[in-house]
């Protein structure tokens, strides 16, 4: 029988010397292997475990519940968020009311890149939106995650170096293995109908699409926020407000630095 992975997380109520050793010894007696261990925010510790039988985990939980020095907060088959929490020592925070919205600050760029890379590795159609103010690191994080996921990225519209809008792709660029990046503001403010025909073709591909400024994108198109599988918010700080007051200013409306690719 193949071994199964489990995620165990507990909060330390009283951090006495030897506590981790006692828990490690208990896991050893139950023939449960520790794959990874790390502190997970404040006074919590997370572990990825490996064992053959569910009964081993049941016995572990029943014993840990008798310990007054810790409180078990999670014991389950690991989710993506659990794996990243152990890897980075912090949790990805999601919106309380909208579970598909995930929030990051600039100091979490490593965690964000890993999170997006795992999403990019999954096959099939995925529509991901990323919100954030200019120069917070949105495009750079998308590109870095693409490299980590071994995906070829294509800018359909972008402001990374200069304003770019594609109105056509060459044959080998239509691939479910590619990752397509759009800037919702550039597409809605500067694009022509040929560009939108291309966008609709790309949206039908069983591939990953990432849209920067998804709120502007849906405001001017037939697409809806509900069409997005994930919404990512990236801020410079926790209390930063994401606004679109600069949309009508020079950043998106000057002709300088604008180019149109047309194959």
From TrEMBL:
SUPFAM superfamilies, sorted: ACT-like (SSF55021)
Domain DUF3388: 72-261
Pfam name, any one: DUF3388
Top-level lineage group: Bacteria
Chain segments annotated as coiled-coil in the UniProt record: none
Protein name: DUF3388 domain-containing protein
Source species: Pontibacillus marinus BH030004 = DSM 16465
């Amino acid at each position: 029988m193949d071994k199964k992975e489990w995620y165990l997380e507990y909060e330390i109520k009283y951090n006495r010397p030897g506590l981790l050793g006692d828990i490690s010894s208990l896991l050893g007696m139950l023939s449960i292997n520790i794959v990874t261990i790390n502190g997970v925010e404040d006074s919590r510790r997370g572990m990825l475990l490996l064992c053959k039988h569910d009964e081993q985990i049941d016995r572990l939980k029943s014993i840990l519940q008798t310990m007054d020095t810790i409180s078990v907060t999670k014991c389950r088959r690991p989710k993506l968020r659990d794996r990243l929490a152990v890897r980075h020592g912090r949790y990805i925070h999601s919106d309380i009311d909208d579970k598909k919205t995930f929030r990051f600050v600039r100091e979490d760029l490593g965690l964000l890149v890993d999170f997006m890379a795992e999403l990019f590795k999954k096959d099939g159609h995925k529509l991901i939106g990323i919100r954030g103010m200019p120069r917070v690191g949105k495009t750079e994080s998308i590109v870095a995650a693409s490299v980590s996921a071994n995906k070829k990225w294509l800018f359909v519209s972008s402001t990374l170096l200069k304003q770019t809008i594609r109105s056509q792709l060459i044959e080998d660029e239509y691939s479910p293995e590619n990752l397509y990046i759009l800037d919702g503001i550039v597409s809605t403010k500067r694009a022509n109908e040929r560009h939108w025909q291309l966008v609709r073709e790309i949206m039908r591909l069983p591939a990953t699409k990432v849209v920067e400024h998804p709120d502007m994108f849906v405001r001017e198109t037939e697409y809806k926020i509900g069409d997005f599988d994930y919404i990512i918010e990236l801020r410079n700080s926790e209390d930063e407000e994401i606004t679109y007051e600069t949309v009508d200013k020079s950043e998106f409306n000057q002709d300088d630095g604008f180019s149109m690719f047309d194959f």
